[in-house]
Amino acid sequence: MNFELKRAAIQDVHNIQTIGRETFFETFHENNDKQTMQHYLQQAFSEEKLLIEINNQQSIFKLLYVDNQLAGYLKVNEGNAQTDAIAENALEVERIYLLRAFQNMGLGKALMNEAILIAQQLQKSNIWLGVWEKNENAIAFYEKQGFVKTSTHTFMFGDEAQQDYIMVKKLG
User: Fold this and answer.
1) What's the farthest any 2 CA atoms get from each other in the chain?
2) Sign of dihedral through CA atoms 46, 107, 61, 149?
3) Alpha helix positions (H), the chain
4) Cβ(166)–Cβ(42) under 8 Å?
């Protein structure tokens, strides 16, 4: 299996939108209201919102291709692009999204390694992320990667307040 990471640009917005909606739905639809899910997918992955994110100089999107097929993407944020002020001199991993067909192949680890490499290149001392408390597979994966639960924050999903664990990894 050959994989390649490419920095995303404006012309990749529809690929990011498609993968974002599909992956979010696959991961969370069983535990959430259908109408709320549809509304969230329309808002969170709207073309307008994604274009703003892609154009933000403090965010980086990396597209993952496996054998020339788009498999997922990584989104990291620094500075004001971060969704929260969690740790000093930190990089946020906002999204590691892999289509279901490409999961359990070591590609999540490849995306996380890329996030860590970016953090090191930016001379960050911490890397952090938020993960839904009910997403046990993701939590176990992040713990394996050396992330530690440090706190929680509320993620509003429609009218429902959900809890995310904040997980931080100190970089050497």
Assistant:
1) 44
2) positive
3) 13-28, 34-44, 47-55, 107-121, 136-144
4) no
The CA angle 159-166-124, to the nearest 5 degrees, is 130
Which residues, listed in sequence order, are joined to residue 132 by a DSSP beta bridge? 164
Fold entry, domain 3-170: Aminopeptidase (3.40.630)
**Whats the size of the chain, residue-wise?**
172
Evaluated on CA atoms 46, 167, 65, 123, the torsion sign reads positive
The C-alpha atoms of residue 34 and residue 23 are separated, in whole angstroms, by: 15
Edge-first strand order for the sheet with 3-7 is: 3-7, 59-66, 69-77, 90-98, 126-132, 160-170, 148-157
pTM: 0.94
Short-list 14, 26, 2, 9, CA closest to 98: 26
Which residues are designated catalytic?
A: 142
Which amino acid, one-letter code, is at 168? V
Q: How far apart are CA 73 and CA 62, in angstroms?
A: 5
List of the chain residues with pLDDT < 50: none
Q: Give the closest residue to 20 by CA, choosing from 101, 112, 103, 97.
A: 97
Rounded-to-integer distance, Cα 169 and Cα 146, Å: 6
165, 130 contact by CB (below 8 A)? yes
Domain residue ranges in the chain: 3-170
pLDDT in tens, 87-131: 889 999 999 999 999 999 999 999 999 999 999 999 999 999 999
